[in-house]
Each structure stands twice: as C-alpha cells, then as structure tokens.
Amino acid sequence: MRSIAKTTAPFVLALLGAYRSMAAEPAVTPTDDPFVREIRPLVVQYCAACHGGTKPKADLALDSYHDAAALAADRRVWEGVLENLRTHVMPPEGKPQPSASERQWLVKLIEAELERHQGPRSPGRVTMRRLNRAEYNNTIRDLMGVDVRLADDFPSDDVGYGFDNIGDVLSLPPILFEKYLAAAEKIATTAVLAPETASPLVTRIEAGKLHSTVRQNANGDLNTNGELFTDFEFARPGQYKIRLSVHGDQAGNELPHLVVKLGDSAIGAFDIAAKRHSPREYHLEFTATPGKQKLALAFANDFYDPGAADPHQRDRNLTIDWIEIVSPRSFAPEDLPATHRRLVTCRPNEPSQRLDCARQIVHQFAGRAFRRPPQQDEVDRLARLVTMATDAGDSFERGVQLAVQATLISPYFLFRVEKERPADDAQSAYALDDYELASRLSYFLWSSMPDDELFAAASKGNLRLPEALAQQAKRMLADRRAQAFVENFSGQWLQTRNLSVVSPAGEVFDTFDQKLADDMRTETEMLFAAIVREDRSILDFLDADFTFVNQRLAEHYGMKDIQGNEFRRVTLDDRRRGGVVTLASVLTVTSNPTRTSPVKRGKWILENIFGAPPPPPPPDVPELNESKKAMASAPLRVRLEAHRAIPACASCHARMDPLGFGLENFDGIGAWREADGHFEIDASGTLPDGRTFRGPSELKALLKENKDQFAACLAEKLLTYAIGRGLEYRDKYAVNAIVMATAADGYRFSALLSAVVGSDPFTKRDTAGTIR
Fold this sequence. Notes:
This protein is an alpha+beta fold. It contains 29 helices and 21 strands. Strands 2, 4, 6, 9, 11 and 12 form a six-stranded antiparallel beta sheet that branches. A five-stranded antiparallel beta sheet has the order 3-5-10-7-8, with no helix packed on it. A two-stranded antiparallel sheet has the order 1-13. The radius of gyration is 35 Å and the shape is globular. The chain starts with a helix and ends in a 6-residue tail after the last strand.
C-alpha cells in the first residue's frame, strides 16, 4: 500500500490543486481528513461527470460529499460506491477509467474510512421466527418420535433474501393456524394412546394371500364348495371384528352362502346378495382367545345346472376380495408404542397422584418442546389440562393428549422465541443464553430442535464458549440430521430447488425427464455434502476434481464405464467440469425452456459466487427476438451483444454476459456441445477488470482468483441462513472477520462454519428499540 501511495501521491496532489481551482466548488483547506486529502479528488475526476452537478444520474451527487463526516452519515451510499468500484461497474464503459493502481488505492481508502467511522458494532435483531415447513416436520419427528410430515400440507413458506427461514416473511395467516390446530390433535393422538381416541388395530389380507382348499385364482374365486383361510395370531383375549368384501354369481333358488369359521366352529354366516363386480362389505363380531388359530371363509352351497335356459342361472359362485381383522387395543405397558412410553413417564394409581404425575410429564415434554426449561406457571397450566380431563371422567392418557395439543400450538413451540434482556455493554446488545444458542445451532445445521447432548451442553452454561460452539457444530455435521442442512441450504443457495418446476422443451431436450432432474439434484447434494463433511476447501465449490454420478447422469455427461442406478464418486480428468458452476442442475435452472441463457447464468454467478447481484432491469426493455428467422440469422452471442447496446442495459450486461458466455458449451440441460445449431460456440469472454478467458476451465480459474470475494459471498449466504435475517451494512465487519478467519485456515469449510457460529450476529442480539 505504501508503494502505491508514493506513486499516487503526486497525482493526487495535482488533482487536489485542480479541484481547488474549480470556481463552482467551495475551497477546501488542506487537512488530515483522508477523505478530503485523497478520496474526494479521485471521485471528482472519475465520478462527478455523471454523479455531480445540478442533475446527477440516479439522483446521486457524489461531489456533494466534502469530508469524512458526510461519508459516515451516508454509509449505505458509500458501500454502494465501494462495491461498484470493486466490481468495475463504475465508471461505465466509454468514460475515463482510473488505472489499476488508482482503483485499488481508492477501494482501500474507502474501505478504511468506512471501517474507521463504523461506530458501535451491532449484532442486529432477528424477528421472532416461526418454524417453516421443513423445521416443523423435523421438530415433530425429533420431539414426538413420529414422522408424519403433516407440514407438507401447510401453505408454502415465503422466501426472503433467498431463503425460506427468514423471520420477517414467515407470517401466520389464519389458514395456517387452523392447520396447526388439526396437526396438533393428530400428532397427540398418534403419539399417546388413550381408550377414548385410540383407533383399533386393523389387519387387511388380500384374497390372493389367503390359502385355499380348492383350486382358486388370484381373484379369490370359490367355484365349488371349499374354503379360503389364514392362520391368524390373536395377540390378546377380547372382542374382535371381521370385515369382508364379497360378491358372487347368483344361480338356482338360493343366494351364495358364506360361513365364517374360527378353528372348527362356525362363528357367523351370510347370504351374499352382492352380484359379481358389485361387492359389498359384511361385518361380524366375535370373541377370541390368544394364540394362532385358523380363520376360514367357506362357500357352503355350490350349485351347477348346465342345462338351465338362462345362462346366468347355471352356476353359483362366490368371490372374496379381501378380509380385515380388527383387533382390540391393549393398554398393557408392554404393548404401548415407544412414543407413548417415552412421553407418559408415570401413571397415577390414586386420584391424589394425578397432579404430581401430570406435572412430571409436562415439565419434561414442555422443556423439550419450548427448547428451554419451562416456567413453573407454564407447567401448572398444562398440568391442569390433564386433571380437568380426568375430573370430567376421561382417562389420564386423554388428559396428556390435551396437554400435548396445547403445547404444540403454543407460540413457544411454533416460534423460536429469544427473550429480551438488558444490554451487556454500552453497545445496547446482549449475548444470547445457552438455550437460545442451542436452538440457533440446531436449526442452522439440522432444521430441527436440539438433541439431548446439545441440551446438556446448554444446561452446563458453557455453550457460548467459541471452542464449545465449534465442537458442537463439528459433531452435528457428522450426524445424519445434517442432511437437512445439505438439502435446504444448498438447494436454496444454488437454486437447485427450482429443478422441480423447470420445464425444458421436450422437442429440444428430449432426454430430460423428472428422473434425470432427480439425479442432477442428488449429484449436487452429494458434492456439497462431501466438501462439508470431509472439511475440504470451500474453493472446491468453484472447481472440484471429483463429482458423483450414476449411469444415467454419466451418459448425460458423456462419461463411460459407469453402470447401474447407484451413485458413486468419480475423479474428473476433464477439467471442463468440476465445481458447482458446471453442474447440470445449476446449468438447467439457469436456462430458458428452449435454449441456454448466458444472461441468467452470468447473473447466477454474480449473485451466488461474487455476492454482487445486478439491480433489477429497467422497465420497458424489449425482449430478445426469438423468431426462427432471427435465430437462424446469427449466433445467440451476436444477438445478445446487439441487445446489450441499449444504454440502460449496457453496464449490467457487461458484468453478466461474459460470465454466461463462458458456459455456452453446456446446453440448456448441462450436456456438452461444440455448436449451437450450425453456429460454432464462442465461449470466450472479457471481465470488466480486463481479464480474459476461453471456455469453462479458464473461467473457473478466474473465479478462484477471487477467492476472498467468493468466501465473503458464501459467508453472507451462510450467515443469512443461520440467523434468519437479511444482512445489512452493519454486518460487514462480521463478514470480514469470518473471511479473515477462513483464509487463515486454508479456506477449510470448518473454519468458515466456526467463524459463522462464533460471530456476533449469531451469538448476540440488539436490545429492543436499538437503532443503528
């Protein structure tokens, strides 16, 4: 920096003198203010022509900032200036450009001033977050031990800042609360058995599974007197039911007669009036003793008269479709499901024991459901629901069901609540408690509640220690539940969730189907998981030397000697592939239905690799001419270059299009090609900073040169997903610290993760009313 300063100083002083001589500008006295001395002269020379005077472009008059205090008062503007300088968006093409050393020097100066005038560091505030659909399903699974996935029928979660777990957009419409009420009842009665609500055990046996004493086809036909039977294990004594689906051929002067036998004894009989192909259900109740017994269905009055005048009266037959045996529920402890035994940890023998037992049960359950130790008044309210049910004549278990339902519709279950408390310091911020940190960590990496080990760490009060957080994060990534992080984060960061809605045109991409889309998604998730779990460099996201394929995907990629539907790890000798940018999943979701889209692909790289998304396109921009005549007249690249000549579009397309052109050898579903129709592919490009490349291999090499910019982008995405809010300029210091820690440890994923979970935005929270 010093050498740059020495070579730039005479130039800066000359600019400063020129600036002072401008009659329209107020005189500026030499000062120690770096903004006045070094930043403003360069800004005046290269920016004020457009962003100055009485009618500045975009209503941004940079020449109106005269000192560092003005910069500090308008940080967001100068953050934008810094980003445009760093990415070579400004000054635009055709305008005087600073030299490379001048640009680098100006970027460092503005960065230093923004850092110097940052003021008190703020961890920000996260809006109280509702569980999204994935989190609800996973939490119910881990809390109750039942995997019912009822949230799949909930309304879709809104997305903010690229993710569906952002507190600001996770509203609670009335229809969703109705769904919560119904789901709570279903979950409670599934997990806890009570005589009033327990559904009977039903065993259905299709006719083809029944044994026969006569020749019988798979349709359960009895064409002569005989039996269909099964040896059924009656688990306990009691009243059983049989339901039958039966129909038959009517002949002679009697209906087909069916006798139901248990062992050698008839326990019921039916005359079957239902005609063939119009079955009816017949029901029978009986008493059984424990043990395996023969249950038989006997056709008892076969009739055959080949000489009957009416063909339909010649043969009497019987057909059985299925049989259902309805067994009584047992509430013996050994017969209760594991979900019931885990939750109902005691049962009162006397009425006087009900309240204490109820308190014991709800204290344990509410503590896990609320993800913190419950308050005594919360326990008492839930326990009273149990005793109110028993006082009304219901069973104790029914009371527990009601307490579970009430817990599952509590805001402390449906929302991740972080308690307000006084600030720890003069910055009006406070550290989250260990239970709140445990929830942040578990929903970050598992999209679910903390497990017993994480709860235990929180109860000891040492989870806030950076080494403890890092150790827990490492453990949790090795757990099978971390697959939720793989699917939810990678699917939204890389936008591969959109594979479920893309629709490449069948007449153009005839090999694409849902199975291929599923294989693309699997490859993406397995690559992401390998980099994370093997603690590889995050730069492997840009250019890994391996991937995962099965036979179908290998054929799509042109790989040989891969057989079978099972995915396996393969080494990539062809460096045209490797990393997320060249995955078929990414290339497919960034294409149009009938062709590739260099604009979408370039925009995807800016957003997800550089963290510098372009602004929305201006209104009334004409669409690209997609007529057959236009498509046959020139390559897509030539037509897009003509399109970007529109002044309002030029600056953004100068950033996006070259990146997208570098991937043009991949067609609209990610297969390699050398030509687009009869036009040869030109996959070369020039970046705004002057660097050139040809093809995806060289493009990826240039992306890796911007490793700190990529690390910052990935840090921002991870931190946004982890804390559930969009990042603001105030979070820049935290992102910079995460990048520095990651770079210092060789860009390993574990270093990035540890820095994220140890950062102030993850571990702290502003007090209510704090404005920064």
